[in-house]
Amino acid sequence: MDQDRNQKPKWYNNRAKVIFAFQAFPPLGIYALLRSSAFTTPQKWLVVAGLSTLIGLIVWSGILRPVNKWLLSLFA
After folding, report:
1. 30-53 pLDDT per residue, tens
2. How many CA atoms lie within 13 A of 37 on its CB side?
3. Which of 45, 56, 70, 76 stands 20 to 30 A from 18 (CA)?
4. CA distance 68 to 10
5. Which residues contact 15 (CB under 8 A, 6 or more apart)?
6. Is residue 35 classed as helix, strand or coil in its secondary structure?
7. pLDDT for res 3
8. Nearest to residue 32, comparing CAs of 51, 49, 11?
9. Contact, 37 vs 57, CB < 8 A?
């Protein structure tokens, strides 16, 4: 029991750090969100839905098409 009280809270249970991780290091932010107890399950699903929508819009809009052409020209 004393061991639980003496342990520092995990970094991923801090909302501000999770949000920062999402912005600065997206893969780490996803990990932090999944591990975090600072967010409820509906909040986690809302973030997942929002990110999926954003990625879908980027792919659908073709914004990255010039970047893809440039990358392919490097390997051709």
Report:
1. 899 999 999 999 999 998 899 889
2. 2
3. 56
4. 39
5. 36, 38, 39
6. helix
7. 55
8. 11
9. no
